[in-house]
Amino acid sequence: MMNDFIYNLLLTGEQGLTLFGTLRFRFTDPLTAVPDGGVPSLLAAHQQLGVVTAVLLPLDGSIAIPLLTGFGRVPLQGFLIATAAGPITTILGSTDNARPAFVQFNQISGNQIAGGVQWRPADPAELVFSLLGTQLRLPI
Questions:
Q1: Which terminal CB of the chain, N or C, has fewer other CB atoms within 10 Å?
Q2: Alpha carbon of 64 to those of 11, 40, 41, 110: distances in Å?
Q3: Given pLDDT bands bounded at 50, 70 and 90, which one contains residue 120?
Q4: Rounded Cα gap, residues 111 and 113, in angstroms
Q5: Looking at residue 32, what is its pLDDT?
């Protein structure tokens, strides 16, 4: 889909395990589709002097890490927290109780993200990974 943001992921675990994956997400509210000017132009109408205004932009997406998720994707829902200066952080959580995953990342450049993934295959077991992602640009 043309409105999707797609990232190739490199995940590194606490014990040195390195995995590859794909993160895909999109804004779910058509009224908050990001215009050509990016998030700052979206928030221009909400700016106030002396006060920082932040908004929550709802997201839907999925993550696929073949060695953890198999060949399927884990569905995610969450939000992007942003100000007029740009995105602050993005938080996504699994909507599939059988495959609980939590993803949080920050934008570090125009097409790169960094953050972490928590995968809980069984309670109380969990795997924690650092995440680096590069945006995949699809031809229009």
A1: C
A2: 12, 30, 32, 22
A3: confident
A4: 7
A5: 53
Q: Contact at 8 Å (CB) between 90 and 83? A: no
pLDDT reported for residue 48: 54
**Residue the block writes with tokens 């969450």:** 78
How far apart (Å, rounded) are the C-alpha atoms in residues 94 and 103? 9
Is 84:40 a contact under the CB 8 Å cutoff?
yes
Range with top average pLDDT, 31-35, 74-78, 136-140: 74-78
The tokens for 51 are: 């006060």
Coil, strand or helix at 25 = strand
Q: What is the pTM assigned to this prediction?
A: 0.79
107, 81 in Cβ contact below 8 A?
Answer: no
Name the residue type at position 119: W
Please state the φ and ψ torsions of residue 11, each to the nearest 5 degrees: -115, 135
